Amino acid sequence: MNKSAQDQIDAYYALRAEIDSLSQKLTVEHQKHLNCRQGCDHCCVNLRLLPVEFHAILSELTPDRIPYKAKITREEDPCTFLNNHSCIIYASRPIICRTHGLPLLFMNDEGTDLELALCERNFTDAQDMEFTVDNTYPEDKFVSRLNMINREFINHYHGSEYKGQQLIPLTRILNQESE
Ligand code: SF4
To answer: What region, left, alpha or beta, does residue 140 occupy, with left being phi > 0 and alpha being psi -120 to 50 degrees?
Structure first.
């Protein structure tokens, strides 16, 4: 991979670290409402990723480093990387997996109002809670930053012809060699 593309992979890792830090803060803040625990895999479906995220994960996780013989499953099936209800690629899991269970704030499709997404297994007694920009995960802000990093990445990556919002199944890492 050339240096400019690698710079965008590094920018992805930095963004991921920032998101981890915010997710940890929000997890502490909402601890008493969160029922997320090892063994709960209701959020875990097969994912499709932007090229920069796919290649960043691929750089960390070649098939020989996956600690279980994962088999590619159909897109509508539970995530291929679950084994006994646990994520076998936890340290490298995609950004969306790092926000599972948290209160997510995003703009509606019309661009007129902010909407809140709450996991129905968490926040079961949150009727009186006040959700603000300070205690929710700002989905749009991070999606937009990830899109910008991805745009730069596909401008510089010459291993394949990627287009704007093209998505790659995460399961494809099982068929790839590291770069
Ligand atoms: S990568 Fe891991 S955390 Fe993400 S959906 Fe798959 S099993 Fe769940």
So the answer is: alpha
pTM of the predicted structure, to 2 decimals: 0.90
Spatial distance between the Cα atoms of 157 and 8, rounded to a whole number of angstroms = 10
| Domain enclosing residue 107, as ranges | 3-175
Q: How many folded domains does the chain comprise? A: 1
Tell whether ligand 1 has an atom less than 6 A from the beta carbon of residue 49.
Answer: no
Nearest CA to ligand 1 atom 2: 87
User: CB–CB of 173/58 below 8 Å?
Assistant: yes
Q: What is the pLDDT of residues 84-141, one digit of tens each?
A: 898 989 999 999 999 999 999 999 989 899 999 999 899 888 777 889 999 999 999 9
Q: Is the CB of 61 under 6 A from ligand 1?
A: no
